[in-house]
Amino acid sequence: MPLGERGGWESSESMYCGVETDFSDDVPSLLSFHISTGGFDYVLAPLMNPSYRPSLVEANGSSDTQALPVSGSDLVLAPSQWSSHVVGKVSSWIDLDSEDKVLRMDSETTLKQEIAWATHLSLQACLLPTPKGTSCANYARCVNQILQGLGNLQLWLRVPLVKSDGDSMDATSEGLNDSWELWNSFRLLCEHDSKLSVALDVMSNLPSETSLGRWMGESVRAAIISTDSFLTNARGYPCLSKRHQKLIAGFFDHAVQVVVSGKLVHNLQKGSDSNTEGTQRHPLRSYLDYVAYLFQKMEPLPEQERIELGYRDFLQAPLQPLMDNLEAQTYETFERDSIKYIQYQRAVAKALVDRVPDEKASELTTVLMVVGAGRGPLVRASLQAAEETDRKLKVYAVEKNPNAVVTLHNLVKMEGWEDMVTIISCDMRFWTAPEKADILVSELLGSFGDNELSPECLDGAQRFLKPDGISIPSSYTSFIQPVTASKLYNDVKAHKDLAHFETPYVVKLHSVARLAPSQPVFTFAHPNFSTKANNQRYKKLRFNLPSDAGSALVHGFAGYFDSVLYKDVHLGIEPTTETPNMFSCSISDAQHQWPFLLGRPLGSEDTETSLGLMM
C-alpha cells in the first residue's frame, strides 16, 4: 500500500516503498510474503538464478534444449502483477569490463537475456548492477545497445552514494572517490538516454550537503537504504539520522521511490514480531513503518505548489505579446497574481506622493499612462493608489489587443471611471500622445528581465514622459545561474535539432541542482534620455562551485530578474531576493515568475570546480 497521505497531494502523487529480496523460484509466495504480509508495494527481485553461467551450460552441451533458470514462468502472475509488483534485478556478478574473457562474454550474454526476459514480463523497470571498478566503457556500450531497441522498460543503474571528502568514505564503496563521476561517465556513454536512470545506494555515511545537492538534478528513480544505515532509537526501533531524514525528504519531494534492503539488524521489543491477528510479522516491517512516518510528517504542500505540480519541469515557449494577441486565459492568470499588483500599487502611491505635495493634492492632476494595459489590472492598481494617497489622476490606458480593449471599455463603464480613464486602442510604438505623462507604468518584463518587450519597447515609450517623469519599473537586472537538469535536457534533446537547444524556455524549475549562486548579468534603467543610449550588452562570468561539491554537468542556465519598481518597492524572482507568493500558474503563462533554461550542455570538468560563461 502507499506510504500514506501527505497533505495537498493527489492520490496519483502517493509514494511507494519496495523491498530488495534474494532469488526465489516461487514468485507468488515471494509477493505474498513481502506485499500481502509485509505491506511493501513491490519487490526488487533477481530474475535469474545467480549460479547461472552461459559458458557452463555450453560446456555441458545442453544450451539448445535447457530453459533459462529464471525465477518462474510468466504464467505464475498476471501481467498486471508483474508490471506493478516486481522490479527486476540483473545478476550482480556480471562484469562486462573484466580482464577475464569468459566472464566478460558470460556477463554480456546474461545481461541481454535478463533484459529480454524483463521485457517479456512487461516489467516497468530493471535494476542494473553497479559497474565493477572505475572503468565501465564496455558495460555502457552494451547497455546503450540494449537501450536502442528497448520499449517501455526503464533501466536503473545502481550507484553507491559516496564521495571522498574526509570521513565520508564507506567500506562498501570499494575505493570509489566520487560515485557521481561514475554515473556521469556511464550515462554520457549511453548518450543521455531518457530510459536510463539511477538508483542510489544510501550508505550509513553521507557526503557533504553540496555534494548531495548535485543528485537533485539527476534522474534518480530509487533510493536503496540498507538496514545497516538505520540507527536505533530509545525503544529499540530503527530510525535515521537527521541528515538521512533530510535527504529522504528531498527524495520524496522529487518522486524518488525508497527501497529497503538487507536483513533485520535491530532487536525489537518482545512481542513486536507478531501483528494484532497473531500472524508472523514481516521482519522488515518496522523499517517500512519508519519510512512511511517520514513521508507522512512532511509539511503539506501550499496551495500555490499544489496548483503548480503539473507545470514542474515543463518546457514552455515564452509569450510573444508584441507579435501575438494574448488570450483571455492568459490575462486571467496575470490578474490572479495579486502580490504583483499590490507591489505596483505601492510603487504608484509613492510616486504620486513624490510628484504632488500634500498642499497641492486638490489642485494638480497627475497624468499617468499605462502602456500594455491588458484587461486593466494596472489601471485598477493606479486608481487605487490615487484614492489611497488622495491624489487626482488622469489615466491613459494604451493597449494594442482589440479583444482586451473590449474588456477595458466594459471595465471602465462598470466601475464608473469614464472621467478618469481614456482607452487608446493602438500599438504604443505608433501612438502620438496628446500630452506628456508624469508617470509611465508597464509590465513588459519577461522572466529574464530583458527577453520580451523590455528594454526596447520601454525606450520607445519614454517619448511619452516629461523630462522629469517617472517610469515604473525604474530599473531591472537579469541574473543567471548554472544548473544540472537531466529531465529538461532530455526533453529538449527529444526534438533532435539544434534550434531547440538554442531556444530559451519558461520553466517551473523543480528537479534541478543549482550548482552555484546566481550572478547579475545586465541592468537597464528607465527613463534613459541619453542620446548615446545603447542596449547592446556583453558580459563574461565565472562561477565557482563549492570545493566539496565535486564535479558537475551543466545542462543549461536558469535565468531570473530583479526589478526596482520605484525607490524601495521591488519585484523579482531571483532566489535570494524573490518577491514571495507571486502567483502565475497557467500553462499559457509563466513569464513573470518562472525562470528560463538556456543553452546547451557544457559538459563536466574532472578536476576543475569553476565554470566560464560568455554572453
Automatic annotation (TrEMBL):
Tell me the Gene3D superfamilies matching this sequence.
Divalent-metal-dependent TIM barrel enzymes, Hnrnp arginine n-methyltransferase1, Vaccinia Virus protein VP39
Outline the extent of the PRMT5 oligomerisation domain.
475-584
Record-stated family: Belongs to the class I-like SAM-binding methyltransferase superfamily.
PROSITE patterns given in the database record: SAM_MT_PRMT
Keyword check for S-adenosyl-L-methionine, yes or no: yes
Q: What's the name of the protein?
A: Protein arginine N-methyltransferase
Task: Provide the species name.
Answer: Brassica rapa subsp. trilocularis
Keyword Cytoplasm in record: no
Q: Which gene encodes it?
A: A08p026150.1_BraROA
Which superkingdom heads the taxonomic lineage of this protein's source?
Eukaryota
> Which residues belong to any copy of the PRMT5 TIM barrel domain?
39-297
Keywords noted in UniProt = Methyltransferase, S-adenosyl-L-methionine, Transferase
**Where is the PRMT5 arginine-N-methyltransferase domain positioned along the sequence?**
304-472
